[in-house]
Amino acid sequence: MKIVLAGGSGQVGAILSRAFAAEGHEVVINLAGRSVNCRYNAGNRREMMESRVRSTVALGRAIEGAARPPRVGLPSSTATI
């Protein structure tokens, strides 16, 4: 199965990616969103939120235009924000 794992470079995404790959799945990773590994000032918080919104919109548009869209979507984000 092909798996799109948006934001798969973080701690949870990396674990999921390894687990899916170990089961023989093809994992596609979209590095979505600004890192939360920073000081939480107003500018960084805004960038974190905006980057996640933009990447979600882009992913949604790609799915809408896909000849064979995914059957299942499982959105998630960090609780740090």
What does this structure look like?
With 81 residues, the protein is of the alpha+beta class. The protein has one domain (2-64). 43% of the residues lie in helices and 12% in strands. Strands 1-2 form a two-stranded parallel ribbon. It is flat and about 40 Å long. The mean pLDDT is 82.
Strand content: 5-15%
Shape: flat
Total domain modules: 1
* Number of alpha- plus pi-helical segments: 2
Order of helices and strands: EHEH
The total of beta strands comes to: 2
Strands ordered across the widest β-sheet: 1-2
SS-derived structural category: alpha+beta
Q: How far apart, in Å, are the first and last alpha carbons?
A: 32 Å
Tell me about the biggest sheet? 2 strands, parallel
Task: Give descriptors for this structure.
single chain; 81 residues; alpha+beta; two-stranded parallel sheet; 2 strands; 43% helix; flat
Topology:
Blueprint: E1 2-6, H1 11-22, E2 26-30, H2 42-64
Parallel strand pairs: 1-2
